[in-house]
Amino acid sequence: MIRVLIVEDDPMVAELNRRYLAQVDGFELAAVARTGDEALTLLKEQKVDLVLLDIFMPGMNGLEFLAKIRAANERVDVILVTAARDCRSIQTALNHGAVDYLIKPFEFERLQQALQAYRQRVKLMRSEAALNQQDLDEQIFYRGKAVQPDLPKGLDRNTLGVVWEAIMQTDGPFTTDEMAKTVGISRVSMRKYLEFLRSQAVLKVELDYGSVGRPTNKYRCINRQAKFSK
User: Fold this and answer.
1) How far are the Cα atoms of 153, 179, 212 from residue 209, in angstroms, in the given order?
2) What is the DSSP annotation of 83-99?
3) Beta partners for 77?
4) Which residues contact 49 (CB under 8 A, 6 or more apart)?
5) Going by DSSP bridges, is the β-strand pair 2-7/27-33 parallel, antiparallel, or unpaired?
6) What is the DSSP string of 175-188?
7) Is there a cis peptide before residue 105, judged by omega within 30 degrees of 0?
8) Mean pLDDT, 10 residues at a time, over the chain (230 residues)?
9) What is the pLDDT of residue 131?
10) Which of 60, 165, 180, 218 is deepest in the core (most CB within 10 A)?
11) Sites of the modification 4-aspartylphosphate (predicted)?
12) What is the layout of strands, in order, in the sheet containing 100-103?
């Protein structure tokens, strides 16, 4: 398990981050700190692999905390989760080795993506195999290959790949029934796959009012750069 320290002075935000973290497999909460000084103490007392770090905190801010742990050569990774959106803060965080940067407010899916990418990176780095350029490009720098999201129970990755390929062949909006017939699975199953893809921000739902009757939900692809391999 990847042990995570949440450093956040707002109790409500810290609790939200804790709940989000609990929804991603492979991670466990090590502790929650409300200040940079408290976080430094916890790092000395507990095993921590990853820090979810805010910048705006009383006393030592997040960037000062990050500089301190790098100066102390602490072997811990950091993802910034903060309202700071100025280029200087972002550049400073990256210069100090932050592996990702999330700007508040953010959707759960964005944090989920960051954690899944980090988990994939850790798995690769903990292996003893020698890496080639393709390994680095696909699994560390994410060029040419998407980080594969966790699938809800009941969904199959191969079927998801088939559904996504069918969507890529569709130019305009489509209904659940239309896509179910194209792929050859039930309408109920297709709706689960389409709703999952919508949760990943690659599809959106539009209402088609037509000429008579109730409006029909139609899906439209809004991110053709995404990849969901079989």
Assistant:
1) 33, 19, 8
2) S---HHHHHHHHHTT-S
3) 50
4) 2, 3, 4, 76, 77, 122
5) parallel
6) -HHHHHHHHTS-HH
7) yes
8) 97 95 94 96 95 95 96 94 94 94 89 89 82 73 61 90 92 94 95 92 85 81 78
9) 79
10) 180
11) 54
12) 27-33, 2-7, 50-53, 77-82, 100-103
pLDDT of residue 152: 87
C-alpha to C-alpha distance for 164 and 170, rounded to whole angstroms: 10
Domains (range + CATH), the chain: 2-126 (3.40.50.2300), 157-221 (1.10.10.10)
Contact predicate 58/35, CB 8 Å? yes
Q: What is the token pair recorded at 217?
A: 């939900």
Backbone angles phi, psi at 195, to 5 degrees: -70, -35
